[in-house]
Amino acid sequence: MSFLDVNEASLALLSSTTVSLAADAATTIYTVPAGKRCVLAFAILIAGADAGTSDIQIGQNGATTDFCGPSDLANVNAQYDACILQPMPVATPGSVVLTKSYAAATVIEAEVTNNAGGATNTLLLYGTLYDA
Length: 132
Known about the structure:
This protein has a single domain (about 10-85, about 100-130), classed as Sandwich (Jelly Rolls), CATH 2.60.120.220. Helix content is about 0%, strand content about 50%. It has strands at about 10-20, 25-30, 35-45, 55-60, 65-70, 80-85, 100, 105-115, 120-130. The strands form 2 sheets. Strands 1, 3, 6, 7 and 9 form a 5-stranded antiparallel beta sheet that branches. The relative contact order is 0.40. The mean pLDDT is about 90.
């Protein structure tokens, strides 16, 4: 079978986690299940309050920028505002957006820096699982 054959993998909600923007910290948002590999697609942050000047990044434990580097949440300024977090394409024509394929047992975290927001934000993580 091919890498992302429709019969073996599809885009799905992997987790829904409360993430605080009120403290600089890393929060575990997903652990890749045994026997699987995971390719992350994007995350949606739904604010519980004004995010202030908080920054957030997503990636594996110990390398929390390897999926989505630091993102400034300054425009997320009211409860229920939402933003999409994902790798961004580079300006070079013809280039691709690089992402990772995470092995089983890899812990995926969201890390908050420059905290200035509320404590009750929902982070929805989407991706694809396939057999290792």
